Amino acid sequence: MSAEPEVFREAVAALRSVQPRPEMDVSEVKPPQRLAPWAYALSAEVDGPAGELATGRLVLLHDPDGAQAWDGVLRLVVFVRAELDTELAGDPLLPEVGWSWLTDALEGCGASWTALGGTVTQTSSARFGDIAGPTHTHDLELRGSWTALDPHLVPHGQAFCELLASAAGLPPAGVTLFGHPKATC
Question: What is the pLDDT of residue 20?
Fold first, then answer.
C-alpha cells in the first residue's frame, strides 16, 4: 500500500488531539479492515461509581476515490452501547432521544457533515440459571455514520465524546451534581 494521503494524516492528527472528559478512557485500537484503503479507530469507555456506564468506538475511513453513498472521501462510523435503568428503557421515545444525542453533539460541537444515517436499538435481557449478574438488563445501541466535509475532525471527535457522555447519563461538562465531584471538560 502506498503512503498515507495527507488528508488522512491530517484527519488522524485531529482526532488524536481531542481531549476527552476525565470520566472517559479513550484509546487507539486496530481499525476494521477492507472497508476503505485507510482506516483509524478509537475505543472509549465511560465508568461510573458502580462500573461501566457506556462504551463506544469511532472509526475513520478514507477512500481517495470516495464512495457514492459517502458523498465524500472521509467517513466516520460510530457505535455506542449504554446500559439503561428500567424506567428509561420503557420510554417509547428512547430511540428518538438516543438519535438526538448524536445529532445534538455534532451540531453543538460545530462539526460539518453530510450523509448522516444510522440506527438506535433497544434490548432487554433476562438471565437465568448460573449466569452471574442482574436478572434483567436493558441496553441502548446506537450505530451511525456520516461524511466529514474536511479533515479538521476535532469537532467530530468532541461530538463522539459528547455522545458517550449523554449515553452514560453524565451531566454537561462543568455542571456539578449534588454529592458528585465537579465534572469538567
Answer: 95
Joined together, the cell numbers standing for residue 128 give 437465568
Q: Are strands 72-84 and 113-126 parallel, antiparallel or unpaired?
A: unpaired
For residues 121 and 89, give the distance between their C-alpha atoms in angstroms, rounded to a whole number.
11
Considering the entire predicted model, what is its pTM? 0.87
88-91 contacts, C-beta under 8 A, 24 or more apart: 88/138, 89/122, 89/124, 89/138, 89/140
CB atoms within 10 A of CB 117: 9
Residue among 97, 94, 63, 96 at smallest CA distance from 77: 63
105 and 163 in contact (C-beta within 8 Å)?
Answer: yes
Q: What angle do CA 94, 101, 50 make, to 5 degrees?
A: 75
The residues, ordered by sequence, that sit 6+ positions from 73 with a Cβ below 8 Å of its Cβ are 7, 62, 63, 64, 65, 66
pLDDT at 174: 67
